[in-house]
Design brief:
The structure is a single chain. Helix 1 packs across helix 3, helix 5 crosses helix 6 and helix 7 crosses helix 9. This protein has about 425 residues and is α/β, with parallel strands linked by helices. A hairpin with a 5-residue loop joins strand 1 and strand 2. The chain has 9 helices and 21 strands.
């Protein structure tokens, strides 16, 4: 189906900072799971800017994904600029400012989701509006704003990628990509994630009889397993063929505990959520074997009854992704960074897991996982903030990247 032709845009640039503030002031915490209000705001802004009204792709009415597509002309490539509409909840963080106040303090824009990633969404809209007024005469640009990224993507990118509505040559996600400074890395890899449950089983019983009846404590057995996995698990890491910084897997055992009754009762079953952050080339079977080897040894050493289960699909194994350094998308991003920031950005591995998992694994589209304003270390934390300068530079970055990539002839065998 032919994409809508880009419409005449506004007479002046979008106020990207004001739009970012509006987005922050429209809560969309997840878990919680309702992005409808922020999706309505984005839809209104797109229409006001003369951009195509977005198609709504929704598995649930309260969890909309928005897709707005502009066709500039034949002979070019199709780029998708993507961001997620949801944020993590405020949680237990103690904020010194209103999480939804979008307060400004010098170069700091505070607010829940400011860097992760509502400011990037604002910049993408502003860049698209600028390109709609430009003389770009080839290629296609889509804006894709997804739900549910922060809680598994069942209603978001996983649903979109499974729906076969994307026909593109590249995706750029605006996750906060800075490590030490804004835009100091070009992330070509999105690390995947294996989500597992370590479980210890025993006979539930009266806790006062532990010594007399030699009853096991499943909680203590699970603690031993978590320590063993943390200290002893060997993860096979594939060769770093692209020489990317940050090339390592990460093991995090005991992220959340479940089970037990309370005082006076020896638990019959205790379970702990455990994750491994994955690199391209790792396999689920190999990881399972490595974890089970540690659990088997721990069981022999302590007599514990330990088992491993993966989370329910599709969240059991979120595949890692990689874009080759020489891919046209990487080349366009590298040149845009050089043009806007005036320096080279080294190729790197993004530590987190992003919607790139689904765009790559399910839709087969090369995806840059994190090219947005902000530092990952500030995300999911109290007093989250993003640099105003970086937000404004993002508009220039996305516009330059999109113009360059859209002019590039599409690769042979592109998805349709």
């Amino acid at each position: 189906m032919t994409a809508p032709t880009a419409q005449p845009g506004p007479r002046s640039d979008v106020d990207v900072l004001a739009l970012a503030q509006e987005l922050i002031r429209t809560p969309s915490p997840n878990p919680g799971g309702d992005e409808s209000a922020v999706a309505r705001l984005v839809t209104d802004v797109l229409v006001e800017q003369g951009l195509p009204r977005p198609q709504v792709i929704a598995k649930d009415p309260s969890r909309p994904n928005l897709l707005s597509t502009m066709h500039f002309g034949e002979g070019g490539s199709h780029l998708v600029l993507s961001g997620h509409l949801d944020t993590k909840p405020v949680g237990d963080g103690v904020w010194s400012v209103d999480p939804f106040g979008a307060e400004l303090d010098g170069d700091h824009l505070f607010g829940l989701g400011s860097g992760d990633m509502k400011a990037a969404i604002a910049a993408m809209i502003a860049a698209a509006a600028r390109l709609a007024r430009s003389d770009l005469s080839a290629g296609t640009l889509s804006l894709l704003f997804t739900a549910d990224e922060e809680d598994g993507a069942k209603y978001g990118a996983h649903h979109v990628a499974s729906s076969d509505v994307l026909s593109a040559d590249g995706v750029v996600i605006g996750e906060p990509g800075g490590v030490e400074d804004d835009f100091d890395r070009l992330h070509l890899v999105s690390r995947g994630i294996a989500r597992m449950h370590l479980t210890a089983s025993a006979d539930q019983g009266h806790s006062s009889l532990t010594d007399e009846l030699a009853r096991r404590n499943a909680g203590a057995d699970l603690a031993r397993a978590i320590v063993a996995v943390t200290d002893s698990l060997h993860v096979d890491v594939p060769d770093n063929v692209h020489a990317l910084s940050g090339w390592h897997a990460t093991v995090n055992a005991g992220l959340r505990f479940r089970g037990g009754v309370g005082y006076g009762v020896l638990p019959g079953r205790m379970s702990a959520d455990t994750e491994v952050r994955l690199l391209p080339g790792m396999s689920q079977d190999a990881l399972r074997a490595s974890v089970e080897e540690v659990l088997t040894q721990t069981s022999k050493d302590h007599g514990a009854d330990l088992t491993l289960d993966f989370d329910d699909p599709p969240n059991d194994w979120l595949p890692p992704t990689v874009v080759a350094p020489g891919h046209p998308l990487a080349a366009a991003a590298r040149e845009a960074c050089r043009q806007v920031f005036g320096h080279e950005t080294p190729d790197s591995v993004f530590p987190g897991t992003t919607d790139a998992t689904w765009f790559d694994a399910l839709a087969g589209i090369a995806t840059l996982p994190a090219l947005g304003p902000g530092l990952l270390r500030r995300a999911h934390a109290a007093d989250e903030w993003v640099s105003v300068t970086a937000v404004e530079q993002s508009v220039d970055l996305y516009a330059a990247l999109a113009a360059s990539f859209c002019r590039t002839p599409p690769p042979e065998g592109r998805r349709r």
